[in-house]
Design a protein that fits this description.
Layout: E1 3-4, H1 17-26, H2 32-52, E2 58-60, H3 68-76, H4 92-100, E3 110-112, E4 119-121, E5 124-126, H5 136-147, E6 152-157, H6 159-165, E7 167-169, H7 179-194, E8 200-204, H8 214-227, E9 233-237, H9 247-252, E10 257-261, E11 278-284, H10 294-308, E12 312-316, H11 331-336, H12 338-343, H13 347-363, H14 369-384, H15 391-398, H16 411-422, H17 439-449, H18 455-476, E13 480-481, H19 493-498, E14 500-503, E15 510-513, E16 516-518, E17 522-528, H20 535-543, E18 548-554, H21 556-561, E19 564-565, H22 571-591, E20 596-600, H23 615-628, E21 638-643, H24 652-657, E22 662-665, H25 673-681, E23 686-689, H26 702-715, H27 734-755
The structure holds glutamine and zinc ion.
Binding site for L-methionine: 432-434, 485, 600
Pfam family, one: Meth_synt_2
Binding site for Zn(2+) 1: 642, 644, 666, 727
Length: 756
């Protein structure tokens, strides 16, 4: 019999119940007991769903109130000492303080979980970090599931991935040295699981899909020889990439089974077919929302079943945490786009797909003939759909003129033409695009969406906002103005709603961090731009002022990165299609007299593949897609781009290759460190390093800004330097925004005098 299991389940609930409960608890509108009860109910529903679809084991210990790596810090006693909490007696309130900070301590830093949009809390390791086991959070879940009669398989992130994801703080040392102290703690935790009578324990080591240094790889043998001494069977799980290059090592470990992600890296299978223990194959995509073609999956699995027999397990590729919960609540989508609806699969549908696969493997395809036919039919209609495959889009991309992604002249020539008409002072000032999104703006947008506000009234409201933003910028004496983005709910959704090939769900939420969820658009078909998207807003804004108005678009890589992307053509093709669609907008803006255009790419770095060997090919197509988005513009049109959220040091050549005339970039929080890299690399075009942090209402002092600008002037020629905040201002209030910008402009004017 083939075994079916899961690696992890969404924690927030089908309708984000956990999020709402947490937030009410934080506002003191819900008691701790009520929050615990709601969480318990959600876990029970998760287990019931898994059991109902015939999972042989339900996954436990994957539930968390905030983040599973924070839970692991608590379970191993590795919470930051600076909070002064006792990990053995941690209260729920203290747990949330670790995650969200308190009046004395800033929160534990957060960063992206591999290449997903989930964020984990980064462990802080010190040379003298002492560990202490506290498995109670996990054991409670195991007990609960057992009491409900479920066959449970607890999951925990393995010690090497845990250490790898952490940061070294204080005195320099190598955190790998902590392993010796950490391992007995893991053994203690595993034994606590075993005391509950579990047969299998799932240990996640996704770090194996990264480029691990040799000494880290070598540690695997030591770690798993030690952990395998416990009296349970260990399933070592890998995901998000291929581990084929570690096949000899992984096959030699004394664990009882191995899980491979065959969705992300199907090619790695051949390196493991001679594995002699349990081989769990991740065949249903845990990262995306597309329905599988089950016959095809069976074509792969059936021969493996013949050779592996009982040792074949099937599962999603990774935890289902990264997919929305339930497609069946998307009734609007089902009405409006029944075909698309039929091509999708969320968590509850995915576990059903696995159920069908399991039945087919154990009883033959005939036992699920009808289900397999439906799956086949969906795959077929998708492959042939005219709604997806549009010849004019593919033809356009296939027949782009040569050098379509190159500007007509090099930067040195372009900038002269641009400066001629722009006539900007030294150190020109600008902002990144958005201005405060006040409750009134949000209310107007929401009412319009609900049909309570007429198009006319909505437009009037937005125009009023634009005028307000323009007047404030004029008063402040900014040089290059923006319209403020009041009409945009979200920088990706706004464009997705106006482009062909995109669809939206109502409840397609996935956890981003803690109680925060995102609802990515679905890119299901060839992308085109039927009509202008931003032109009339920018044009209206320009009509109000003599100063230059900057047009504002979201770039193709960021749109791609923050969406669920179709899996039937390469991501690179989708990205270039978006680039080409955006170029229509850029040219229309140019025609309308908007000749400074910013194309935001905050997400360009987060698209980087996990392994360095794959960086170049990604950066090549991402760069091309970005450049296609300004295809055909005149030399005297000035293209800006903007980046934030990450460090860019290691991809500077790729950033330069974007050939934007001006790049604005988040730098203030790193005290302009980033700029040193830009100057070492000799970044050739104009650059606007952020001079203040927009994440806080705090108004920077003139001295602080002056310090940053002087630092910038040391590494950037004064003719190349722009002055702007770190990022958009939409999360700020008006009062602080005005004061912050005024300080920025006062300092700039002072420096200008000095430099003149
Ligand atoms: N133009 C966007 C804004 O100002 C950029 C946002 C971002 O970089 N994340 O809001
Ligand atoms: Zn930004």
């Amino acid at each position: 019999m083939t075994t079916l299991h899961h690696l992890g389940f969404p924690r927030v609930g089908a309708k984000r119940e956990l999020k709402f409960a947490q937030e009410r608890y934080w506002r003191k509108e819900l008691s701790e007991q009520d929050l615990l009860d709601i969480a318990q109910k959600l876990r029970e529903i998760n287990w019931q769903n898994q059991a109902k679809e015939n999972a042989d084991y339900v996954t436990v210990a994957d539930f968390t109130f905030y983040d599973h790596i924070l839970d692991l810090q608590v379970a191993t006693g590795a919470i930051p000492k600076r909070f002064g909490f006792d990990s053995q007696k941690l209260t729920l309130e203290q747990y949330f303080e670790l995650a969200r900070g308190n009046k004395d301590q800033f929160a534990i830093e957060m960063t992206k979980w591999f290449d997903t949009n989930y964020h984990y809390l980064v462990p802080e390791f010190h040379k003298n970090t002492e560990f202490k086991a506290n498995p109670s959070h996990y054991v409670k879940q195991i007990k609960e599931a057992k009491a409900l009669g479920f066959n449970t398989k607890p999951v925990i992130v393995g010690p090497l991935t845990f250490l790898w994801l952490g940061k070294e703080k204080g005195e320099t040392f190598n955190r790998l040295q902590l392993l010796e102290k950490l391992l007995p703690i893991y053994t203690e935790i595993l034994n606590a699981f075993i005391a509950e009578g579990v047969e299998w324990i799932q240990i996640d080591e996704p770090a194996l899909a990264l480029d691990l240094p040799k000494e880290w790889l070598e540690a695997y043998n030591y770690v798993y020889t030690e952990l395998a001494k416990v009296n349970a069977r260990l399933l070592l799980t890998t995901y998000f990439g291929s581990v084929a290059e570690h096949a000899p090592l992984l096959k030699s470990l004394p664990v009882d089974g191995l899980h491979l992600d065959l969705v992300r890296a199907p090619e790695q299978l051949s390196a493991f077919t001679d594995y002699e223990k349990v081989l769990s194959l991740g065949v249903i995509d845990g990262r995306n929302i597309w329905r599988a073609n089950l016959n095809e999956t069976l074509n792969l699995l059936e021969p493996l079943k013949a050779t592996l027999g009982e040792r074949l397990w099937i599962a999603p590729s990774c935890s289902l945490l990264h997919t929305p919960y339930d497609l069946s609540v998307e009734t609007e989508l089902q009405d409006k786009k029944p075909d698309l609806y039929n091509w999708l699969s969320f968590t509850l549908q995915k576990i059903k797909e696995l159920h069908i696969l399991k039945t087919a493997l154990n009883q033959g395809r005939d036992a699920v003939a009808a289900e397999l036919e439906q799956s086949q039919l969906a795959a077929q209609t998708r492959a042939e759909s005219k709604d997806i495959h549009r010849i004019e889009v593919t033809a356009r991309l296939a027949h782009l003129p040569e050098n379509a992604d190159k500007r007509k002249s090099p930067f040195a020539e372009r900038i002269k033409e641009q400066n001629q008409w722009l006539n900007l002072p030294l150190l020109p000032t600008t902002t990144i695009g958005s201005f405060p999104q006040t409750p009134e703006i949000r209310y107007a947008r929401a009412s319009f969406k609900k049909g309570e506000l007429s198009l006319e009234d909505y437009e009037t409201a937005m125009k009023k906002e634009i005028e307000y933003v323009v007047r404030r910028q004029e008063e402040l004496d900014l040089d290059v103005l923006v319209h403020g983005e009041a009409e945009r709910n979200d920088m990706v959704e706004y464009f997705g709603e106006l482009l062909d090939g995109f669809a939206f769900t109502k409840f397609g939420w996935v956890q981003s961090y803690g109680s925060r969820c995102v609802k990515p658009p679905v890119i299901y078909g060839d992308v085109a731009r039927p009509t202008p998207m931003t032109v009339r807003w920018s044009q209206y804004a320009q009509s109000l002022t003599k100063k230059v108005m900057k047009g504002m678009l979201t770039g193709p890589v960021t749109i791609l990165q923050w969406s669920f992307v179709r899996n039937d053509i390469p991501r690179s093709t989708v990205c270039k299609q978006i680039g080409v669609a955006l170029s229509d907008e850029v040219l229309d803006l140019e025609k309308a007299g908007i000749k400074v255009i910013q194309i935001d790419e905050p997400a360009i770095r987060e698209g980087l593949p996990l392994k360095r060997a794959n960086w170049d090919s990604y950066l090549k197509w991402a760069g091309e897609a970005f450049r296609l988005s300004y295809m055909g513009v005149q030399d005297d049109t000035q293209i800006h781009t903007h980046m934030c959220y990450s460090e860019f040091n290691d991809i500077l050549p790729a950033i330069a290759a974007l050939d934007a005339d001006v790049i604005t970039i988040e730098t203030s929080r790193s005290d302009m460190e980033l700029l040193t890299a830009f100057s070492d690399f000799k970044y050739p075009n104009d650059i606007g390093p952020g001079v203040y942090d927009i994440h806080s209402p705090r108004v920077p002092t003139a001295d602080e800004i002056e310090h940053l600008l002087r630092k910038a002037l040391k590494v950037v020629p004064k003719e190349r330097l722009w002055v702007n905040p770190d990022c958009g201002l939409k999360t700020r209030g008006w009062t602080e925004t005005i004061e912050q910008l005024r300080t920025m402009i006062d300092v700039t004017k002072k420096l200008r005098k000095e430099l003149a």
